[in-house]
Amino acid sequence: MSEPRRVLIVEDSPDDAELSIRALRRAGIDLTFQRVQTPETMRKALAEGTWDLVISDYSMPRFNGLAALKMLRESGLDLPFILVSGTVGEDVAVEAMKRGADDYILKSNLARLPLAVERELRDSEVRVERNRAEARYRSLVDRVPVGLFRVSPEGKILEANPALIEMLGFSDADSLKQTRIRDLWLRPEEHDRAAAIIASDGIVQNFEIEVRRPDGSVTWCEESARAVYDPAGKIVQYEGVLVDVTSRKLAEAESNRARDRVRDLALETARLRSEFLANMSHEIRTPLVGIIGTGELLSHSELTHEQRRLTEIIRSSGELLLTVVNDILDFSKLAAGRVVLEKLDFDLVDLTENLIDTFALAARAKGIELALQVDVNLPTGLKGDPSRLRQVLNNLVANAIKFTEKGDVIIRAKLVEGTADDVIVRFEVVDTGIGIPYEMQGRLFQPFVQAEASTNRRFGGTGLGLVIAAKLVEQMGGEIGFESEPRQGSNFHFTARIEKGTEIIRPWMAPTAASCFNGIRAIVITDSPATREVICGYLSSWGSENVAVGSGAEALEILKLESAGHAKRIVALIDEQTPDMGALRLARAIKDQCGAKHGKVIMFSAETGGRSASDAVDASITKPLRPSNLFSCLLELFGDGDCARIETVAAAPRNPGPDEQPQWRKAVRVLLVDDNLVNRTIGAKQLSALGYAVEVVDSARQGLAIVAQGSCDLVLMDCEMPEMDGYEAVAELRRREGSARHTVVIALTAHATADDRARCLDAGMDDYLSKPIKLQVLAEMLDTWVTGEHDHIATRQQ
């Protein structure tokens, strides 16, 4: 609430003063007042009080309004003055305004008084504030610790503040103004350069100069100035700021030295950190050689279907662990956006089918149904970074299983759009788990954040997975997001732009598959909504009529409604865990009702084997269900006509077996040098599986001795060995051979960076393999180096 206005009334009549006060208060002006009527009392009131306004009568016995106005102005107070009179002539009013009165009011028209008072008070406030601003400006100019100046176009100093006078070493403004500005510059040519900049641009900023002071000392200054123009566009003066930067310039040398020390320390810290990460990578990757290598070797041996599937899970899980380990160790690189995506041909169907197999055991242990839904319109071959794509999917599926106690987890891959060169694929991982609290959803992609404070203790995890996934998706040209309801599950999804690659034959995705099962009516019996959705989707895409139910009783009711002469054949796909009756009992009931000829039963279960073996079951499929397996199973039961040709393609082997390796490899002698027993064992078996003759030693010195005997054609050399490492060994080998001979040496190392590869090549090795080494990669590497030499190898053997 504002304070009342203080009004000094110069008036000999109390009644007239009261009329003025009433007029003001009726208008809503809050005021206090004092009435005076003599020069003495007015002078005393002005000296003792703080007033906002003076209202004076013109005619008084000992005093008049013009005298009161003169007294006010002589007092130095800048207050509004309003003259009020009963009878005032025009000449008097004009004279009063000339002497500084702000307004005059006739007593017969006091209604004007409030308007005049409000206007003059408002103008007074503006005037007072302007004066205050001017005073503050002048005070600022005088006290500011930087130099302010105005200079004529000829270089004469027109104005300078105290800071500038002191900065330039002068005693007063007059002595400074006797000096031309150019003469103060230690290097006048620099002044000319600054002047040229102002002439061209109208302004110069942060221009460093050295100024010579009258005592001969030199100070560093930084000038910023601009040109001031007249209406004709002619420069009339320059104005600007000069800042003393001597202390800064003196400190720069020390600062540079300190910066160099900090830089050296940072480089050393980065080196030690990189060395630590490299060592950690080496130690973790080394045991993975045994896991992945063993799994791959087993996959090339004589195995049953189930053994082969389990072996594939071991192998793919090991590879997945390797990818995760690499990314965790390389998190800082990922966060800095320095991870480069590879471009490799890959099979998206294989990737997703192997993905669900990897998580099958974890889902089965929790009683969760895992389902895969792949869009049949996707290209069959793509080109990108499958390990990074797999890593993102792995993270989302692992989270879905981790945070789901019961129900389903479904993985979808569908085509969003495509061009002649690439496609945008949308991946979704949908679960029926605990969901994400609303208050945490905005923080979910921040490092180390999980859905709630207790989540880490309850479910484990670092909280880095989604951050890494988001950065990888961004590099794939896509976006990641989610929808979630607490206690109702989540849908995590992302898109990726992927190039089209070499076409891969997928019969169940071929256009001809759309009408392959037109004559078949399918009934899907499972209590899993996700499994019903996925199987029915595939069946519809292959032309089969279908219906899905959650219990055996519902299935039998539907079959009863089928007419006896129905032309279509029936296939029942039964979940072994049918809740309301035994799966075999249901299968027999369906057979009895449809007949063995027209009714087929496919049982799908978490495990294959004898539990579902029965004359009532025509085929079995393992969960989680692969679309390729479902299609092949249907082909076996109903394939005829056009489908027979598809079946032939589907049955063709995709990869040659180990016994189909080129015979010439037997003549190639490969020396494997590695101090680790597991590495030697796995490496020797891999080389034997590929058909190469192999010799194994556990030290670099033994390896050099064998090479000296001429007993090998190619060397696989481990880089990290005691006594003599691989780098020292190859350097010694090159020294011994000179220009007479060159033995091909391929580095084997658990380090996996571009710098490690460069170090190997710089040491004299011919190529580089990062552990763990896939069989196919090893074969391609060796074939590349020995294909051109196997003729003379064979000749030597003869």
Largest beta-sheet details: 7 strands, mixed
Number of helices: 28
Any low-confidence stretches, pLDDT <50, length ≥5? 451-462, 644-659, 790-798
Percentage of residues in helical conformation: 40-55%
Gap between N and C termini, in Å? 114 Å
Number of domains: 5
Any descriptors?
alpha/beta; 28 helices; 22% strand; 798 residues; 46% helix; Beta-Lactamase; single chain; Heat Shock Protein 90; 5 domains; Rossmann fold; 27 strands; elongated; 7-stranded mixed sheet; 5-stranded parallel sheet
Structure, described:
The protein contains 28 helices and 27 strands. It is an alpha/beta fold. The strands form five sheets. Strands 11, 12, 13, 14, 15, 16 and 17 form a seven-stranded mixed beta sheet that branches. Strands 2-1-3-4-5 form a five-stranded parallel beta sheet, sandwiched between helices. α10 runs antiparallel to α11 and α24 packs parallel to α25. The C terminus is likely disordered.
List the helices and strands and how they pair.
Blueprint: E1 5-10, H1 14-26, E2 31-36, H2 39-48, E3 53-57, H3 65-74, E4 81-85, H4 90-98, E5 103-106, H5 112-143, E6 147-151, E7 157-160, H6 162-167, H7 173-177, H8 181-184, H9 188-201, E8 203-212, E9 218-229, E10 235-244, H10 246-299, H11 305-329, H12 331-335, E11 344-346, H13 348-365, E12 368-374, E13 382-384, H14 386-402, E14 407-418, E15 422-431, H15 438-441, H16 455-459, H17 465-475, E16 480-485, E17 489-500, E18 520-525, H18 529-541, E19 545-549, H19 552-561, E20 569-575, H20 583-594, E21 599-605, E22 619-622, H21 627-638, H22 642-651, E23 669-673, H23 677-690, E24 693-697, H24 700-708, E25 714-718, H25 726-737, E26 744-749, H26 754-763, E27 767-770, H27 775-786, H28 790-797
Parallel strand pairs: 1-2, 1-3, 3-4, 4-5, 12-14, 18-19, 18-20, 20-21, 21-22, 23-24, 23-25, 25-26, 26-27
Antiparallel strand pairs: 6-7, 6-10, 8-9, 9-10, 11-13, 13-17, 14-15, 15-17, 16-17
Helix pairs in contact: 2-3, 10-11, 10-23, 11-13, 13-14, 14-17, 19-20, 21-22, 24-25
